[in-house]
Molybdopterin molybdenumtransferase
Amino acid sequence: MRPVDEHLAAILAAVRPLDPVELDLDEALGAVAAEDVAAPVALPPFDNSAMDGYAVRAADVAGAREDDPVLLPVAADVPAGDTAPRRLAPGQVTRIMTGAPLPAGADAVVPVEWTDGGTGTVAIRRPAPPGNAIRRAGEDVRPGDVVLPAGTVLGPAQLGILAGAGRRAVLARPAPRVVVLSTGAELVEPGTPLGHGQIWESNGVTLVAAVRQAGGRAERRRAVRDDPAEFLATLNGLLGTADAVITSGGISMGAYEPVKEALASLGTVWFGKVAMQPGMPQGFGLLGDRRVPIFTLPGNPVSSYVSFVLYVRPALALMRGLPAGPPATVPARAAAALRSPAGKRSFLRGVLSGVDGADGADGAGGEARVTPVHGQGSHQLAALAAANALIVVPEDVTEVPAGAVVEVIPL
Ligand SMILES: Nc1nc2c(c(=O)[nH]1)N[C@H]1C(S)=C(S)[C@@H](COP(=O)(O)OP(=O)(O)OC[C@H]3O[C@@H](n4cnc5c(N)ncnc54)[C@H](O)[C@@H]3O)O[C@H]1N2
Ligand code: MOO
């Protein structure tokens, strides 16, 4: 049997980062920047007011008191967006709004709350020190500063700074387009009636959601029946556009294994057993001229999801141009004894608590604990849904006593 780490290494060695493309910011959420983006100008581009109030010369209002206000004429009104070049004469003020350019000669802003709000003449009741409520040009970014390095995932704030630095588009690796195919004559669409011997197709729904959570775009196809020719025809139709294909089912030792039957003859897809539980039967390879990666995951629902976490998620990270490796683990104390088959790495489903974010608690001060859920069968989807972590038991360990520290993959 192939070791878990060897299987992941083979996948990561075969998969390539997607080519960067110029993406409009409206389409770039979740993409990964493939260029260093520098600001063409300072940000803010000009000195401006941080408050609604009056631009003044600080010296003119130094003597202002609550009971003895300074009265000054209001020479002009400067709203945000004002483009006129302005200069403030000594002994005058201009009304100014937040974000409006500071007139030359002004060196402080008096908030409207410190005044009577006058429009012809204003009574100022408090002094403003030089620099008060002024946002200086370049305070956020200097011209030429890199505001976003290559390799950054584009979230809302990152798209915001690109727009704020004047960019309409960015060179980025797009979200991989992944098609999820399930096989099995027993599968019927959720929401339709169930006959004897049938089950509702669930792997496709899980895997599509998992792809999206991993930063990909995913499309679920209706399950194909156990016919290799039909499977191959469906697959061929995808190879021009998909960046990756995930299948579930049809790869084990049964009489009807359409995925394995269809792909084995191509010679570019490896099928075999990986030393893990669940998820022992696995397949991976590259298809067509575009060398599209295909992950043929086992059909049991828990097995396919665990396989996704271990192999597909790191591969998608690599395709996005992000660091890729085995899932991160955290140590936790096992709340109950654990069993694992000799020679296989087990990924038992558990509930992790006492870790930031794992259970909604802040975990401060507490020690992480993990409790295996009831129902460790690879068909027990409800037990998987009740878990928030995978407990890793190494290949050479068959029993873990309650209270021992184990490594855990938060889901
Ligand atoms: N003689 C052997 N039998 C099996 C072995 C073995 O080594 N020797 N391995 C077992 C293990 S471990 C697994 S895992 C499964 C993997 O089988 P396949 O990948 O071929 O999957 P199927 O047989 O098509 O389905 C397995 C199971 O999962 C259900 N399933 C499949 N697709 C879906 C779906 N989209 N949604 C929900 N449920 C799905 C399917 O109905 C079966 O119950 O093989 C073991 N057998
Ligand atoms: O690989 Mo299977 O997952 O043990 O049911």
Observations:
- Residues 48-135 form a domain with the Molybdopterin biosynthesis moeA protein; domain 3 fold (CATH 2.170.190.11).
- The mean pLDDT is 95.
- Residues 61 and 127 are 5 Å apart (CA to CA).
